[in-house]
Amino acid sequence: MIILFCGSDDYRREEKKRSIIAEFRAKPGLAVDSFDLADKENFFRFQDFIKNQSLFEPEKLAILANVFSAGAEEPMSRELARELKEAAKQNSITVLVSERKPTEGFSFLSKKSAKIDVQKFDYLQGRAWEEFVAAKAKECGARMDVPTLKFLTRVYENDTW
Questions:
Q1: Which positions ≥6 away from 113 have C-beta within 8 Å?
Q2: Contact 128, 96 (CB under 8 A)
Q3: Burial of 123 from C-beta contacts in 10 A (0-12 / 13-18 / 19+)
Q4: For the segment 14-71, what is each residue's pLDDT rounded down to a tens digit?
Q5: Residue 100 to residue 7: CA distance in whole angstroms
Q6: Cα dihedral angle (47, 49, 54, 57), rounded to 10 degrees?
Q7: Could you give the C-alpha distances from 85 to 9, 109, 112, in angstroms and in order?
Q8: pLDDT above 70 covers what percent of the chain?
Q9: Alpha carbon distance 37, 97 (integer Å)
Q10: Using CA atoms in the order 73, 76, 80, 86, what is the torsion angle rounded to 10 degrees?
Q11: Would you say 102 and 4 are in contact if contact means Cβ atoms under 8 Å apart?
Q12: What is the phi/psi pair of residue 96, to 5°?
C-alpha cells in the first residue's frame, strides 16, 4: 500500500505523517525505515528494504522523502516509479510519501485506489482555518477572543507553521 500526503500545507502534512508513523511503530513485528531519496544511495537501501523479507518483521513501513526531486526522465525516477507500483501490490509493505505534488512520472500516485491512499493538505480557508487556529491555540493553553482570532487568521493565512 502507498500512502501519499500531498498539498501546500507542510505543517498539517507533517503532523499527519508523524501520527501515522507513531501508529505504525506501536504495532509489533513491523520494520520502519526512512529514506531520503535526494541521496542516490538511499534509493538502493530502499530497494533492499522492500525486497528483503525478515522472519521477525513480516510487515514494513518505508518513509520516503524527496521522492519527486529527480526529473521524470532520470533512470532512477523511472525505476522508483516501478518499485512503487510493485510495493503498492504488496500487503506487507506500506510506503509513506509526503510531498507537495507528484511530478509527471508519478501521476499514478494521484489516483486513489484500494492500494493507494491519497490525502490532500491544501491551505485551509474561512471557517475551517479559524477553527484550526483556535484549536491549536487551545492546545497551547491560550484562550482568544474573537478579534484576536480574526487578527491571527488574517496575519498568518497560508502559514500554518
A1: none
A2: no
A3: middle
A4: 999 999 999 988 888 888 999 998 888 898 999 999 888 777 777 899 999 988 875 5
A5: 5
A6: -140
A7: 26, 9, 13
A8: 96
A9: 11
A10: 100
A11: yes
A12: -110, 125
27-to-12, 17, 19, 50 alpha-carbon distances in Å: 23, 16, 13, 18
Task: Kindly state the cell numbers that stand for 79.
Answer: 525505476
Task: Report d(CA 140, CA 136) in Å as an integer.
Answer: 6
- Residue owning grid cell 482555518: 129
| Cell numbers placing 157 | 493565512
Which three cell numbers mark 149? 482570532
Yes or no: say if 63 and 33 are a contact pair by the CB < 8 Å rule.
yes
CB 37, CB 69: distance < 8 Å = yes
State the sign of the Cα–Cα–Cα–Cα dihedral 113, 158, 16, 67. Answer: positive
The single residue listed with the C-alpha cell 520502519 is 32
How is residue 38 written as a grid cell? 535526494
CB-neighbour burial class of residue 135 (10 A; exposed 0-12, middle 13-18, buried 19+): exposed
Alpha carbon distance, N-terminus to C-terminus of the chain: 29
